[in-house]
Every structure is written in structure tokens, then in C-alpha cells.
């Protein structure tokens, strides 16, 4: 599959092969399942919100500066990930790699801050086993954090492949799919920001 | 040293039960026998190359079905043990704990490790052929799905001899299933075994959705698909939306048990009812996951052996879509008596009754398909015909249970037991046997013996009614489910004796079926045409068994019942003689089974709460995933000369 062939063609490279189209569609279906997974965690978290069993409440725990910074890091990383996809469409290997590396750095910053936040809470005596509210909190936010961590490993793997073999239908499809995944996690975080942190500070 | 010995004898190996020692011995003997046979006949390489590493949907389907039959055997033994214990009052055949374990494993195995894999196996065998595809969309993922199901089932079954079986029912209600009330590893086995198998099922769901939506032969519009393919599509959508709920519920209970969480505990703000809700939000759609493919199988078989187009094809599709939507809106009818209140109960009672409307429509469509047709009473069709009245009994008693006020009387009684066995056996199990008989020639190239099949059919169907009809009356007489014994003087014994006799009749029917498999392999009629039933759909357009590439040329579809139309308009010969090109196929891979092995290690480690073993297992999984990502696997081509040779040997081209 030559590069010029696809450039003349309006179809983006990642959609240029049957294999690419099937895998991208399959990933969308998988994201549908992920939405259900997070919905369950959100719904149960809401139910457990006030069941603090005499332990710390959301208001006692959450630190505005901390979760605002986390939000800023992750939302920016979603933007830079979008720029990487833009460069992918222009078949600019260096651009893709640079923007994805920036995405990675922001993602690592986010995961680092979240780990720090969790350690702080545990230090204050707010553990998984303290109350149903905290079990729900650590499970919901932790599941998102695990997803982001896995995404970081995944992006690193695909960047190595891109650096080795350049932009071709296979790497384009992989970069595009990991981009979808990253944006999805960003959307989930917007809900965590609203449902967990804002609701926790207001209610 | 004495510590280790103490642990092994008291916690690790299950000791003190003669039945379990027998199981230990038979497991060891069977394992040795398999090793000896494989080594003696030098079949190790064949096993690895042809089966364990395969990504061919037909072989994966056969492996699913084999595993499901083994699980049917195990679940069936559980059932017979329970029936023996309940035959007469005050029997001491099983004690309370042992009985709890057996009804738990019976239910879990029959639903998750028998019914679902059996149907997924039939889907794997038939669906890609029905749509004229050469494989599923993601063959490698398909292998991972199978091996995850397999190790999940093995992990669950291991509990019998190592560590102790789960004992909180297949619904595993909290707080009973929480650590405080149910210490030990039994429930952990349940949680992790189901988790592994569930992830595999979710992957299958995604795989089938993409396959059906994107890989149909040219001309096969959605409304020309065989009904079994339609049922697979709708089932797969339900899987994609329901299984993540199970994943979450199991993970939450695992967090409670392993890491001291409080989701479902009775203390520190936990809510036991949360589990009940999550479980049934998955659990009710699950019921339709095992019944819709059954409907699809019956539709195809009834129309084939009536020699007619399916009556009301469009309405059949719309009914299934309606059922799939409603299946998500009825979950609280499983616990009307657990305090939801009158308003909630009424809403869910009505939504439950509403499901009987599209289901009833389907029943009439099947009947009208047969109306004024010349029905061929083959074994596959007999199962389908028996399904209709038997399933209707289960359906009607289901509507009785849906009346929330009356449910207070039926709830947790043998009436309920009889009801759901009536829908699950007459629906799902009959469909599995019907589909197995129907597609057997497509899998193995010979037909199952009809005479032995009819023996199985009559003994099993009669046994099934003898077993379950008395249980409706037992329910009315006040016998509750999960009771391990009962005092004399209640008048329950005669009906229980009848029921037990029925159970053993079903067991005999199953044994005749197993013998039929052996008999037909040796003496059965070979299917040289590829079309033993004068079929209507595309799986009969290829050889039996189908070649690796399924179709030398992808057929062009012009109508519903695509192959029937080809035969009627004399297009078959012309299609077979089209020029053959190289065919692109995926490569086999040993990684799915290795990945599943690491999943097993992780599951086993977490079951015993050895977190480091769990971590090693998950790390292994991650490594296999990275290796896959870095692999440059573009598949291989079967050259046209080879395809031509295969087709010529099958007598399809000259």
C-alpha cells in the first residue's frame, strides 16, 4: 500500500483496508460495552454517596486544586491526542510521535497525581475498607486510572511500532484506535469530575 | 513443614468425602489415559497444530460443543445427586453443606458453562457459513474467547477437589456470599471462574456483531439473513450490553471479599440488595441470551423440514428486537418479595407479561410455517416440534409468576423450579440437541443415526416431563427450593419419587445420545452432497465438513433462503464453476491458549488470595498482548491450485 495512493484517495489511511475498517468498527462496539461498565460503576457510586458510615465524607476529602489540575492535565492530553490524529491524516510521522509523546507526559502527570491523591486519602484513614462510599470511590476512580495507565503502556507500544515502520495502514489503524480509547477515557473523566468531585463538593 | 501439610490437607485439597476421593481418582486416571493415548498414537503434534492453536471458526465451534457436553455431564450428575437426595423424606445421602454446594454448581454450570457455550459453539459452526463468510471478523479473538471460557470453566470445576465448592447458590446473593458469612475459597472460585468466562463471552459478542454487520456475502441484505443469524445478531447485542454488568458485579464482590470493600456487606454502609439488582440486570438478559439463539435454531429447522419459507419473517425479526429491549426492563421480577413495593412490582409485572406478546407471536409463526406443509419428522425436527408445547407450558407458568401479588405464593417454591426448567430445557436444551443433530453432518461429514436419535428424543422428552411436571404440584404443596431434605408426613414423597424417575430417564436419554455419537462415527451415513436435509440456507451450499476456506467462491445472494433460491433457479452449477482465485486466510496461533493459561494462573492465585500469583498471571497476560501487538501477522493465502484440487476431490467441479 503506497503512501501516494492513499493521499490521492479521500479515504483516511486507517480505513483503507478491510482489516482496518473491521477493527475500528469492532473497537466502537467494544467502547459501547465500556460505557455500560462505567455506567454501572457511576450508578452504584451515586447510591453509596452518602453511605459514609461515620468515615470521611466527600467534602472532607476532595481538594479543589488537586482535582482541577488532574482535569486540566487529562483534558489537555485529549486535545494533544486530537492533534496527533490530525498529523496522522497528514501522514506526518514526526508530528504524530511528538504529539503523542506530549499526550503521554500529560497522561503520566495525571496518573501520578491520582496515585498521590489516593495515597494521601489512605494516609488520612480513608481506605477502601472504611465505608461503602469509599469502596465506591476507589473502585470508580481507580478503574478509570487503571484504564489510563493501560492506555499509556498501549501508546508507548504503538509509538515504538510507528517509529520502526512508519505510517502505514496498520500503524495508522492502531494509532487511530488508541486515540479513540484515549478520548473515551477523557469523556469518562468529565463525568467523574461532575459526578464525583463537583457533586461531592456541592451536595 | 507441618504447616504446609496442615494447609494442604485442611484447606487446599478437599478431604473426608468418599465421592470426592472417587473424583480425585477418576481425574488422575482420565488425565493419565489422555496422555497415554496421545503419546501412543503420536497425536500430540496433531492436537496442537489442528485444534489447540486453531483460529478456524468451525473447529472452535466444535471445541465449544465438546466442552459444553462435558459440562452437561457434570451438571447432570449434580442434578441426579440432588434428585436422589430428595426422593424420600429424611434421607442422609447428602448433608446440608454438600447439597448447597451441588445446587450451586449445578445452576452455575448449566447456565454459564453448558447452555451458553453450547449455543456459542453452534453459532461458531453455522453462522459464518450462513452469511457466506470465510471466517468471523476476528478469528484470533475468537480463539481467545474460547480459551477464556475453557479456563474459566476449568477453574470453576477445580473447586470440587481443591479448596471446596461455592455454596451460595448460582445467584450468589449477598450478604450470604460475603466473607463474613461464607469464608473459604468456594465463592472466590465462583467469582473468578465466571469473570474469566464472562470476558470471553463479551469478546464473542463484539466479534459476532462485527461479523454479521460487515461480512455478509454480496446481496445478503439484513432482511435476507437466515433467522438463526438474526437471532445471533440480536443475542450478541444483548451480550455487549449485559455482560459488562456481570463483569462489574463480580469485580465488586471480589473487591469486598479480597480487599475488605463494603459494596454488599451488611455493615459500614454496604447494600446487599445492590448485588441482587446488578446480578439480575445482567441475569435477565442472560436468559434471553440463551433462548434467542434457540428460537433461531428452531426457526431454521422448522422451515427446512416443512419445506417452506418461514412464515412472518419480518414479524419474527421485530419480535426478537422487542424481546431484546424488554429483556432489560424486567429484572426486579426475580425478587418481587424483597421489598420493592407495590408500584415497582406492578411496573415490572406488566413489563414481564409484555414479553409474552412477541414470544406468542413467534409461536404462531412457527405453527403457521408448518400449516399445510409436508412435515418431515427427522430427529432435529422432532426436538423442534416438542419444543413448542413444552415451552408454552413454561411460558404460561412464567406469566403466572409475573403476577406480583400471586408471586408471594409461588416464590422460591418448586413451582418456580418447574417453570424455569420448563423454559430452559424445552427451549435451550432441546435447541442444543436439535442444532447438534441438524449441523452434525456439517461438522463431521456424517449424519447421526436417526433411530438412536429417536430413542434419545422420546426417552428424554418423556423423562423431562415426568421429572418437572410433578414439581409444579410440589410447589403448590409448599416444597421450597434449595431445601436439602424434608420430614415425612407432608405427602411430598410420591411426587418426588416420580420426579426422580424422570431425572434418571433424562440421564438414560443422554447416554443413548453419547452412544449414538460413537455409533454414527463408525456406521453413520456419510454426507457426500453437503446438503443432507435439502436445506435452504448457505451452510448447505458447501461441502460437509466445510473446507477451511468455507466457500471456493463467495455465493451471490438474491433472496431469503439463499441456497434454496440458488437451487430453484439452477444457479448452483454456474456458481461452482466460476474461476477460483487465491484465498486469504488467518494464521493459526498458539498465543490464545498461552494467554488463557496466564489468565488461569491469575484466577487461581486470586481465588486463594495469593495476590503475588495473581500479579504474575496478569503480567503474563500483558506480555502475551504486547507480543501480539508487535507481531506482523498478515495471514496466508491458499493458492488457487490447492482450492481447485480440494473442490475437485469433493466432486464439486470437474
From TrEMBL, chain A:
**What does it catalyze?**
2 a quinol + O2 = 2 a quinone + 2 H2O
Cross-referenced InterPro entries: Cyt_c/ubiquinol_Oxase_su3, Cyt_c_oxidase-like_su3, Cyt_c_oxidase_su3-like_sf, Cyt_c_oxidase_su3_a-hlx, QoxC, Ubiquinol_oxase_su3_dom
Q: Does the record's keyword annotation contain Transmembrane helix?
A: yes
Report the main location listed first in the record. membrane
Any Pfam family from its record, for instance, is COX3
Q: Which UniProt keywords apply?
A: Cell membrane, Membrane, Oxidoreductase, Transmembrane, Transmembrane helix
Q: Name one GO cellular component term.
A: plasma membrane
Cellular localization per UniProt? Cell membrane
**The protein, known as:** Quinol oxidase subunit 3
Automatic annotation (TrEMBL), chain B:
One MF term in GO for this entry?
cytochrome-c oxidase activity
Superkingdom, according to UniProt? Bacteria
Topology versus the membrane? Multi-pass membrane protein
- Which reaction(s) does the protein catalyse, per the Swiss-Prot or TrEMBL entry? 4 Fe(II)-[cytochrome c] + O2 + 8 H(+)(in) = 4 Fe(III)-[cytochrome c] + 2 H2O + 4 H(+)(out); 2 a quinol + O2 = 2 a quinone + 2 H2O
Which class of enzymes does this protein belong to? oxidoreductase
* Necessary cofactors: ferriheme a; Cu cation
Q: Which InterPro entries match?
A: Cyt_c_oxase-like_su1_dom (IPR023616), Cyt_c_oxase-like_su1_sf (IPR036927), Cyt_C_Oxase_1 (IPR000883), Cyt_c_Oxase_su1_BS (IPR023615), QoxB (IPR014233)
Q: How is the cofactor bound?
A: Heme A3. Binds a copper B center.
Pathway recorded for this protein: Energy metabolism; oxidative phosphorylation
GO cellular component entries: plasma membrane; respiratory chain complex
Q: Where are the transmembrane segments?
A: 20-41, 62-82, 102-126, 138-162, 189-213, 233-255, 279-298, 310-331, 343-368, 380-404, 416-440, 452-473, 493-518, 593-623
Q: Output the Pfam families linked to this UniProt entry.
A: COX1
Keywords of this entry = Cell membrane, Copper, Electron transport, Heme, Hydrogen ion transport, Ion transport, Iron, Membrane, Metal-binding, Oxidoreductase, Respiratory chain, Translocase, Transmembrane, Transmembrane helix, Transport
* Gene Ontology BP annotations: electron transport coupled proton transport; oxidative phosphorylation; respiratory electron transport chain
The EC number on file is: 1.10.3.-
Which residues does the UniProt record annotate as the domain Cytochrome oxidase subunit I profile? 42-558
Give the location in the cell.
Cell membrane
Q: Function of this protein? A: Catalyzes quinol oxidation with the concomitant reduction of oxygen to water.
Which family does the similarity line name? Answer: Belongs to the heme-copper respiratory oxidase family.
State the name under which the record lists this protein.
Quinol oxidase subunit 1
Give the organism the record lists: Pullulanibacillus pueri
UniProt lists the gene as qoxB
Amino acid at each position: 500500500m503506497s503512501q501516494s495512493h492513499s493521499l490521492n484517495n479521500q479515504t483516511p489511511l486507517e480505513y483503507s483496508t478491510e482489516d482496518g475498517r473491521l477493527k475500528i468498527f469492532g473497537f466502537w462496539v467494544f467502547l459501547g460495552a465500556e460505557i455500560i461498565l462505567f455506567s454501572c460503576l457511576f450508578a452504584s457510586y451515586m447510591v453509596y454517596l452518602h453511605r459514609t458510615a461515620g468515615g470521611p465524607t466527600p467534602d472532607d476529602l476532595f481538594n479543589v486544586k488537586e482535582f482541577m489540575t488532574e482535569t486540566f492535565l487529562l483534558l489537555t492530553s485529549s486535545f494533544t491526542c486530537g492533534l496527533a490524529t490530525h498529523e496522522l491524516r497528514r501522514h506526518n510521522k514526526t508530528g504524530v510521535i511528538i504529539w503523542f509523546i506530549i499526550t503521554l507526559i500529560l497522561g503520566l502527570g495525571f496518573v501520578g497525581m491520582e496515585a498521590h491523591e489516593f495515597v494521601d486519602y489512605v494516609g488520612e484513614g480513608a481506605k477502601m475498607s472504611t465505608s461503602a462510599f469509599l469502596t465506591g470511590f476507589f473502585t470508580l476512580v481507580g478503574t478509570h486510572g487503571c484504564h489510563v495507565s493501560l492506555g499509556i503502556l498501549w501508546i508507548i507500544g504503538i509509538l515504538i511500532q510507528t517509529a520502526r515502520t512508519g505510517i502505514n495502514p496498520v500503524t495508522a489503524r492502531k494509532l487511530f484506535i488508541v486515540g479513540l480509547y484515549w478520548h473515551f477515557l477523557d469523556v469518562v473523566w468529565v463525568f467523574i469530575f461532575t459526578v464525583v468531585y463537583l457533586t461531592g463538593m456541592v451536595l | 513443614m507441618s504447616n504446609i501439610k496442615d494447609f494442604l490437607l485442611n484447606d487446599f485439597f478437599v478431604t473426608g468425602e468418599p465421592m470426592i476421593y472417587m473424583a480425585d481418582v477418576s481425574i488422575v486416571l482420565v488425565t493419565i489415559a489422555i496422555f497415554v493415548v496421545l503419546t501412543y498414537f503420536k497425536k500430540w503434534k496433531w492436537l496442537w497444530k489442528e485444534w489447540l492453536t486453531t483460529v478456524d471458526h468451525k473447529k472452535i465451534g466444535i471445541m465449544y460443543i465438546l466442552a459444553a457436553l462435558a459440562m452437561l455431564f457434570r451438571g447432570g450428575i449434580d442434578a441426579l445427586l440432588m434428585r436422589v437426595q430428595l426422593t424420600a423424606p429424611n434421607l442422609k445421602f447428602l448433608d446440608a453443606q454438600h447439597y448447597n454446594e451441588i445446587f450451586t454448581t449445578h445452576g452455575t454450570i448449566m447456565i454459564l458453562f453448558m447452555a451458553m457455550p453450547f449455543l456459542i459453539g453452534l453459532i461458531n459452526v453455522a453462522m459464518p457459513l450462513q452469511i457466506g463468510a470465510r471466517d468471523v471478523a476476528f478469528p484470533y479473538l475468537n480463539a481467545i474467547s474460547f480459551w477464556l471460557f475453557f479456563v474459566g470453566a476449568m477453574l470453576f470445576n477445580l473447586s470440587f477437589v481443591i479448596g471446596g465448592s461455592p455454596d451460595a447458590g448460582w445467584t450468589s446473593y449477598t450478604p450470604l456470599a460475603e466473607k463474613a458469612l461464607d469464608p473459604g475459597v468456594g465463592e472466590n472460585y465462583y467469582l473468578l471462574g465466571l469473570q474469566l468466562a464472562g470476558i470471553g463471552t463479551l469478546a464473542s459478542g463484539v466479534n459476532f456483531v462485527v461479523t454479521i454487520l460487515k461480512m455478509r456475502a454480496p446481496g445478503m441484505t439484513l432482511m435476507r439473513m437466515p433467522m438463526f443469524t438474526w437471532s445471533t445478531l440480536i443475542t450478541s447485542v444483548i451480550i455487549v450490553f449485559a455482560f459488562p454488568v456481570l463483569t462489574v458485579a463480580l469485580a465488586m464482590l471480589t473487591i469486598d471479599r479480597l480487599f475488605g470493600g463494603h459494596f454488599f456487606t451488611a455493615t459500614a454502609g454496604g447494600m446487599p440488595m445492590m448485588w441482587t439488582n446488578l446480578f439480575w440486570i445482567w441475569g435477565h438478559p442472560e436468559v434471553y441470551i440463551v433462548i434467542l439463539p434457540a428460537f433461531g435454531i428452531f426457526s431454521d429447522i422448522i422451515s427446512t423440514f416443512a419445506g417452506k419459507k418461514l412464515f412472518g419473517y419480518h414479524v419474527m425479526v421485530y419480535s426478537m428486537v422487542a424481546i431484546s429491549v424488554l429483556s432489560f426492563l424486567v429484572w426486579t421480577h426475580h425478587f418481587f418479595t424483597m421489598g420493592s413495593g407495590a408500584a415497582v412490582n406492578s411496573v415490572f409485572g406488566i413489563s414481564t407479561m409484555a414479553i409474552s406478546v412477541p414470544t406468542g407471536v413467534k409461536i404462531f409463526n412457527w405453527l403457521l410455517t408448518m400449516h399445510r406443509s409436508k412435515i418431515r419428522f427427522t430427529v432435529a425436527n422432532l426436538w423442534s416440534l416438542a419444543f413448542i408445547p413444552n415451552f408454552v407450558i413454561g411460558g404460561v407458568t412464567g406469566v403466572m409468576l409475573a403476577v406480583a401479588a400471586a408471586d408471594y405464593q409461588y416464590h422460591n417454591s418448586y413451582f418456580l423450579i418447574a417453570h424455569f426448567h420448563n423454559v430452559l430445557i424445552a427451549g435451550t436444551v432441546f435447541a442444543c440437541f436439535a442444532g447438534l443433530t441438524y449441523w452434525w453432518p456439517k461438522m463431521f461429514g456424517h449424519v447421526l443415526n436417526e433411530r438412536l436419535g429417536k430413542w434419545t428424543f422420546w426417552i428424554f422428552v418423556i423423562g423431562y416431563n415426568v421429572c418437572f411436571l410433578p414439581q409444579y404440584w410440589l410447589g403448590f404443596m409448599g416444597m421450597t427450593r434449595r431445601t436439602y431434605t424434608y420430614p415425612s408426613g407432608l405427602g411430598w414423597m410420591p411426587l418426588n419419587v416420580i420426579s426422580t424417575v424422570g431425572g434418571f430417564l433424562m440421564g438414560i436419554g443422554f447416554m443413548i445420545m453419547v452412544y449414538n455419537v460413537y455409533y454414527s462415527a463408525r456406521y453413520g451415513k456419510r454426507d457426500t452432497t453437503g446438503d443432507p436435509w435439502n436445506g435452504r440456507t448457505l451452510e448447505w451450499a458447501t461441502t460437509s465438513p466445510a473446507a477451511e476456506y468455507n466457500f471456493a467462491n463467495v455465493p451471490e445472494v438474491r433472496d431469503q433462503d439463499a441456497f434454496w433460491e440458488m437451487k430453484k433457479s439452477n444457479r448452483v452449477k454456474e456458481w461452482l464453476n466460476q474461476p477460483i482465485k487465491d484465498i486469504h486466510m488467518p494464521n493459526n496461533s498458539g498465543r490464545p491458549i498461552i494467554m488463557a493459561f496466564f489468565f488461569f494462573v491469575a484466577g487461581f492465585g486470586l481465588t486463594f488470595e495469593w495476590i503475588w500469583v495473581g500479579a504474575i498471571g496478569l503480567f503474563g497476560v500483558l506480555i502475551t498482548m504486547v507480543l501480539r501487538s508487535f507481531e506482523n501477522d498478515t495471514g496466508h493465502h491458499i493458492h488457487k491450485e490447492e482450492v481447485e484440487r480440494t473442490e475437485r476431490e469433493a466432486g464439486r467441479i470437474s
